Amino acid sequence: MISLIRNLLTLIVLLFISINSIGQEADVNDQKDRLPSTWELLKYDGASAFGGMKYTYSRPLQWKKDDFITAGAIVAGTAALYIFDEETSDYFIEQDHEMPQLIKDIGWYYGSPQNNYAINGAVYLYGLFTKNEKVRKTGVLLISAASTAGLIQTITKTAVGRARPSTGEGKASFDPFRGIGPYHSFPSGHTILSFTTAYAIGKQFDNPFVKAGIYGLGMIAPVSRLWAGAHWLTDVGLSLAISVLVVDSIDNYLNEERLYGPEEKNKISWEFNVGLGRVGLTGTF
Questions:
Q1: How much is the CA Rg of the chain, to the nearest whole Å?
Q2: Residue 83: CA atoms inside 13 Å, Cβ hemisphere, count?
C-alpha cells in the first residue's frame, strides 16, 4: 500500500510537471534576473495561505442575498438527503463486498490527512523550488483549502457527535462532544480532504474530460466511506458542499488580493488528439 500511495503521489507531481515545464522555461529565462529568492517566496506563500483561511472564515460576515440563498439551498439539500439516509446507507453497505479492494484502499489512503498533505505539499514544493508561479499558487490553494476545511470538519464532527451507520444506532443518534470515533460521522473528513484536493486541482484545467477524471478520483473516498458504513449520505453531501465553497473562496482571495501574476500568462488550452497509431493530450500555451 505504501507503493500505491507513492505511485499516486508521483502521478500528481508528474501531472504538474507536464503542465508547466514548457511554459516555465520561457518564463524563467525572461525573468530570472528579477525573481525573488526561495525564502521570500515561502514567506509570501505562507502569508497567502493564512490569509486565505482568514478570508474564508470571515466571509459569512459579508454575505449578501445570493450567499444566503446558496446557504439555504445547501441546508435544504442536506435535509432532503436526511430523509433517505438509512435506506441509502443500507444499499451502499450491501455493495461493499463487490467492490475491489484496490478502490477501497485508494479511497482510504487518499482521504487520510497525512497522505493528502503529502500530495499537497509535493505540488507546492515543486512550484516553490522551480519558482513556477502557477504551480506555487495551486499548492497554496491546496494547503490553505485543506487546512480551512479540515478545521471546520474537525470542530463540527466533535460538536455534533453523530453516530456512524456502523454503530447500528440509526441516523438520528447524536451524542455531542463525546469525542470518540464512532460518534464522528458528521461531516466526513475523508470526503472533505479528498474532494478539496481534487476540486482545487481540477480548477486549473479547462478541458471537461480532464476535470471529470480528477473529480472522479476525488469521489472515490466519499463513496468508499459509504460502502464501509462509516458515514451517512448527508455527511458526504454536506462535505462536498463545504469543499467547493472553501476552495472557491480561497481561490477568489488569491486571485483578487494576492499577486501571482496575470491569469493569461499561465492559460493552457487542452485537447485530446487521436489518430492512426497515436493518442495523446496536447497543451497549447
A1: 20
A2: 4
Dmax (CA) for the chain in angstroms is 64
**Lowest-pLDDT range of 110-119, 152-161, 259-268:** 259-268
Distance CA(182)–CA(168), nearest Å, equals: 10
- pLDDT at residue 102 above 50? yes
Q: Which amino acid is at 115?
A: N
User: How far apart are alpha carbons 23 and 284 in whole angstroms?
Assistant: 10
Q: Is the distance from CB of 17 to CB of 127 less than 8 angstroms?
A: no
Rounded CA-CA distance 16/78 in Å is 35
Confidence of residue 269 (pLDDT cuts 50, 70, 90): very low
Q: Determine the Cα–Cα distance for residues 159 and 106; give it in Å rounded to an integer.
A: 29
